[in-house]
Design goal:
Layout: H1 2-9, H2 12-46, E1 57-60, E2 63-64, E3 70-72, E4 75-77, H3 79-106, H4 122-135
Antiparallel strand pairs: 1-4, 2-3
């Protein structure tokens, strides 16, 4: 059973999947950084300095004690973080679209196999034999 598991794990598909998952995690971090550090400041600039990640609707405010420590955290709907997530989704979708499109162009088209040269048909061969026998 251990040998079967080792053979399963060492197949190309499982290793390819593991690499893809790790790469997707790294790409996710890159996209999050791109959206949060590059795209959202640009969007905020054009919307008058609005930072989407801080946008929220507070349902109940945080309760503080006498020392200023939070005893009950606020309850809020953070729709700004959701907007950032949507922008992440659009960017990842666009990048994947471009990768698939480029892959389709680079991948060689399956060329049809050249047809075997057609030889004479059986009737033509028989007619040729007949003509040769007549000439003898």
């Amino acid at each position: 059973m251990l040998k079967e598991f080792r053979n399963f794990i060492m197949t190309g598909n499982v290793i390819d999947l593991a690499v893809a998952v790790l790469l997707a995690g790294a790409v996710g971090l890159v996209v999050n950084g791109f959206v949060n550090d590059i795209m959202m400041p640009i969007v905020g600039f054009f919307t008058g300095g609005v930072d989407f990640s801080d946008m929220k609707v507070v349902l109940s405010a945080a309760v503080l004690d006498a020392d200023g420590k939070v005893t009950t955290p606020e309850s809020a709907i953070r729709y700004g973080a959701w907007v950032n997530t949507l922008i992440n989704l659009v960017i990842v979708g666009f990048v994947l679209f471009m990768i698939v499109k480029a892959y389709g162009k680079v991948r060689k088209k399956a060329e049809p196999a050249p047809e075997a040269p057609k030889g004479p048909t059986q009737e033509e061969l028989l007619a040729e034999i007949r003509d040769l026998l007549k000439n003898k």
